[in-house]
Every structure is written in structure tokens, then in C-alpha cells.
Amino acid sequence: MIGALAALASSFTWSAGSSVYARLSKDYLPSQVNFSRALTALPLFILSAVFFGEMESREVWTRLVSGNGFWLLMSMLGSYGLGDMAFFWSVRALGLPGALAIASSYPFWSAAAGVIFEGHSLSALKILGVVCTVLGTVVVVLVGYRHRNRIITDFFDRFEVGLALGFITSLFWALNTFAVSKGAQGLSPHVANSVRMIAALAICPVVGLVLQRKWRTGIPWQSFKPVSWVFALEAYGGSFFFVYGLAHSPLAVASALSSLSPVIAVPMAWMGKHEPVSWVKALGVCVAVLGAILLVIP
Predict the structure, then answer these.
(1) Are the C-beta atoms of residues 254 and 36 closer than 8 Å to each other?
(2) 117-130 as b/e: b if 16+ CB within 10 A
(3) Can you give the residue ranges of every domain in the chain?
(4) Cα(152)–Cα(94) distance, rounded to whole angstroms?
């Protein structure tokens, strides 16, 4: 129950972070944005792990060497390294709602991986919960999508490219959830995320160099400072909830609950009167919330 709630909490933090990151990725390389996320979170995770005495156990280092470290590295390839980069690129062509609509299908792949590779069994109620969560989320983001005339200036502005990148994102995000569910076993979220952020700091500049032929680290301070609290909230708080949720609840349940950020953003926008109420979108929210309830209940 607590693990499922932690996965749900990570959706709240990603809701706050994704719009900021997508906006920054228009001016800077996605690898720069992700490098700054890792650089912000790493010292916080290390300090937390040291404060709680979580790095002193020999078992921790044994687990990292014996296989957990490999899976945590793979998780960052699927998220900060390649998955998030594909997502930010797809946003350029599809807009944030359209990109989220496609990428949010990743719980299906995560659930399939859990069943095929880990032998997880899902009750009919849990399967219905996954379906409702994903479909409700897709309805919400597609209703919010508005086509607008855009000037295509490069390869990543093309609609078909954005479509393909959105699908690729869903596969990489499924890899991330599967890898975290294996790599975080027996480790505290602070230790597991310390390893993940160290890996991200090494991966992001290399990915940027290979894919875009530019070696960059983080975004400039003048752009980072006004939104630094968002980086801390999402990269530290969101990663903590995400890892804890995947380590303490079934893979299909945690991945579906962690994908609800666009649904969460809708009622917040209504309450703040940032957009008019749409009954179709409200139906999508209700379906997604129903799915979340089905996944959380024992």
C-alpha cells in the first residue's frame, strides 16, 4: 500500500517537473537538462544516505557489485540517458500533451515485462486498473491537445518523427521501471538513487556528444536558478518516491500509478482557473482515478 502511494506521489512531482524541463529543452540540449537534474539530486541523496547510515553496511556494496548496480545503470540509460531525451525531442513536434499521450503507454510494456521475465501474476482487477489508468491518461492529454501551425525548422519538428520518438520513449521508460524494480531491491532509495545519479552524470554528456555531436554538461546558472526548486523537488523527491514505489509494489501497479502526472495536472488547472472545464477531459480523469483506485486497493 505504501509503495503504491509512493509511486503515485512521483506522478505529482513529474507533473511539476516535465513542463519546466520541456520548456528548457527548447533552448538547451536534453542531455544538459538531465545533467542538471542529476547534479542537483546527487548531493542530496548522498547526504541523506550518510545521515541515515545507509552506506555502512557491507551488504549494500555486495548487492551493488553482484547485479543491482548493473540494473540501476540500465535504468538511467532508459530514463535520463535516452528515454527522457527522446521524450523532450518528441515534445518539439507533438507538444507536451501529444508526447505524453504516447509515452504514457509504457505501463503496458512494464506489466508485460513483469509477467514474462519475472513471473508476476495479475488479477483481472489489476489488469483492469492498468487499462483504465493508461486509457484515462491518454484521453486527458489528447483532449488537451490543440493543433497549431508550426514552422518546421529541423528534423525533430516533423510530426512523424515526434510520433516515432514518443513510442520509443514508452519503451525506454518501461525499461527504466523494470530495471529500477530489480536494481532497488534490498537498497534504500537514497543509496539506489545515489548510484543512478552518478551514472546519469557520466551518461548524459556522452549521449549528447554521440547523438548531437556536442559535449555539454548542465544548463547555465541564470536559467537554472529561477526553477532550481523544481529540479530539487522532482529529481530528489520524485526519484525517491519512484524508486521506493517500484521496490515495494508490483511492477505493473507502480508503473501505472507513476504515469498519472497529466491527469493530476488537470484538476489543478481547473482549481487555478487556468483552463475551462471539459466534460470529456473530466471523464478521462475519472477513468484514470478509477484505475488508480483499483491498483492501490489490496
Answers:
(1) no
(2) eeebebeeebeebb
(3) 2-296
(4) 12
The number of beta carbons lying within 10 Å of the beta carbon of residue 200 is 28
Q: CA–CA separation, 188 vs 47, rounded Å? A: 13
What are 248's three cell numbers? Answer: 515495494
Spell out the alpha helix ranges (H) of 52-152.
Answer: 58-63, 69-76, 83-103, 106-118, 124-143
Query: What phi and psi values does residue 215 have, to the nearest 5 degrees?
Result: -95, 110
Q: Which three cell numbers stand for residue 76?
A: 538511467
What pLDDT, on a 0 to 100 scale, did the predictor assign at position 140? 63
SS3 185: coil
Q: Exposed (0-12), middle (13-18) or buried (19+): which is 86, by Cβ within 10 Å? A: buried
Angle at 136 between CA 133 and CA 138, to 5 degrees: 105
DSSP 209: H
All 3 cell numbers of residue 195? 548510484
Q: Which of 201, 200, 202, 180 is nearest to 192 (CA)?
A: 180
Average pLDDT per block of 10 residues along the chain, 298 residues long: 88 85 85 93 95 81 84 92 86 71 75 74 76 75 55 62 84 91 89 94 89 81 94 95 90 79 63 61 72 66
d(CA 288, CA 283): 9
Residue pair 84/168 in contact (Cβ under 8 Å)? The answer is no
Grid coordinates representing 297?
Answer: 486497493
What nine digits make up the cell of 36?
Answer: 542538471
C-alpha cell at 56: 555502512
CA torsion, ordered 113, 114, 117, 121, to nearest 10 deg: -130
pTM of the predicted protein model = 0.79
